[in-house]
Every structure is written in structure tokens, then in C-alpha cells.
Write a structure and sequence with these properties.
The protein has 148 residues and is mostly helical. The protein is built from five helices and no strands. The two termini are 34 Å apart.
Length: 148
């Protein structure tokens, strides 16, 4: 594969990624959904100890972060696309490491504290999804600030 054909292929792939993005106006909506859901999650214990409210608030945070993550920037150029891909890569690696290491870390802590019922606990779906999306959104924003 020549350098020119490789560059053309990458340009087409980056162009295809734009099809999966929401307009920039959704970014603010995603932040609002995530923040409101987070506040509801914090207040849920005092307002109403119903598990349904906690469930909705937790997944509201996930949905808000997802909307924020896939929304376009005001100026969407090749640098922003590259930074976005870097942040997705970093978030993926961090999420996989977290999902693999957390159960064993908890197990080691249980053994060291001499807990009688030491066993490997699975990391929950909310924890992994939240970590993936939060790392991607915050790392992307950090990368943008570094490149200004």
C-alpha cells in the first residue's frame, strides 16, 4: 500500500466518522442531562430511597456523557478528529485496564484484610461505562486545551 493510498483511506475513514456525530447543539444538552442526573443521584437518598430513581439517574449520566461524547465541536477539523480518536483510544485502554484490574485489586484487599469471604467481584456495567465515557470526554477536552 502506497503512502498516498493509505492517506486517502484514512481520510475516507475520518469522513465516515462524521456520519455518526450529533450536531454541536447536542453537546450542551448532553452536559445538562449528565449534570441534572448527577444531582438527582446525589439527592436520591434524601428525596426518595427508591431504586428506580437511582437507576434512572445513573443511566441518565451515561446517556448525557454519550451525547456529549458524540457531538460535534463548533469547528470540526482534522485536528479535532485526531484528538477525538486519541481520546477514544485512551478511554478504551483505561476502561479495559480498569475492568481487568479492579476485581483482582478488591480480591487482594480482601485477602490482606483477612476477610473470611474473599472472592473476586465483577465490576459493574455502570462503573465501566461511566469510566469509559468520562475519561473520553475529559481527556478530549484536555487535549483540545493543550492544542490551542
Amino acid at each position: 500500500m502506497t503512502k498516498k493510498s493509505f492517506m486517502d483511506c484514512e481520510r475516507r475513514n475520518l469522513g465516515n466518522m462524521k456520519k455518526y456525530q450529533l450536531p454541536h447543539s447536542f453537546k450542551k444538552a448532553g452536559v445538562v442531562v449528565a449534570v441534572v442526573s448527577f444531582v438527582v443521584l446525589l439527592l436520591h437518598r434524601y428525596l426518595s430511597p427508591q431504586e428506580e430513581l437511582k437507576f434512572l439517574a445513573r443511566y441518565g449520566i451515561i446517556i448525557g456523557l454519550l451525547i456529549t461524547s458524540i457531538s460535534k465541536e463548533r469547528i470540526e477539523d482534522e485536528l479535532v478528529s485526531q484528538l477525538r480518536m486519541q481520546s477514544y483510544t485512551f478511554a478504551f485502554i483505561t476502561g479495559v485496564a480498569y475492568a481487568i484490574l479492579l476485581p483482582f485489586t478488591g480480591y487482594l484487599v480482601d485477602i490482606m484484610s483477612k476477610t473470611k469471604e474473599a472472592h473476586v467481584k465483577d465490576s459493574g456495567d455502570f462503573q465501566v461505562l461511566f469510566l469509559l465515557l468520562a475519561v473520553q470526554v475529559f481527556y478530549f477536552e484536555w487535549l483540545k486545551k493543550l492544542h490551542k
